[in-house]
Amino acid sequence: MSLVFGPGLAPYASIISVILLFVDGLLFGLAAKKGLVSIILIVVGIVLAGILGITIPFVSLSTIWTHVVNIIATQANVNNIGPIFYTFPIFWIIGFAIGIWKG
């Protein structure tokens, strides 16, 4: 990693890397929280539209729910998330948690 930062910053390469991992996790956490809020608001909008009798052709809450359940089931069966998730650096996870909490 010291080659990336140059000779002047080489002694601080590990500290800079940890800080960059933390900031990356923080920004990703903020984005994840905003995305989750957007998904929730879309579902609430579709439910309210259904209650009012307004429908979008070929899109219903049951269709969306079926697709979401299928995606989650596929990811759970493939086991892609487990090994990758546990190899993330701890500072990225801390930054992600703070990003979601403060976002």
Q: DSSP strand (E) fraction?
A: under 5%
Q: What order do the helices and strands follow?
A: HHHHH
Helical proportion? over 70%
Number of domains: 1
Radius of gyration: 20 Å
Overall pLDDT score:
76
Our count of helices gives: 5
Cα shape: elongated
Could you list the spans in which at least 5 consecutive residues all have pLDDT below 50?
none
Notes on the structure:
There is one protein chain. The protein is an all-alpha fold and 103 residues long. The protein has one domain (2-102). Helices cover 79% and strands 0% of the residues. It is elongated and about 65 Å long. It starts with a helix and ends with a helix.
List keywords for this structure.
79% helix, 5 helices, elongated, single chain, mainly alpha, 103 residues
Secondary structure: elements and pairs:
Elements lengths: L1 H4 L7 H40 L8 H18 L2 H6 L3 H13 L1
Q: Gist?
A:
The chain has helices spanning 2-5, 13-52, 61-78, 81-86, 90-102. The chain is mainly alpha-helical and 103 residues long.
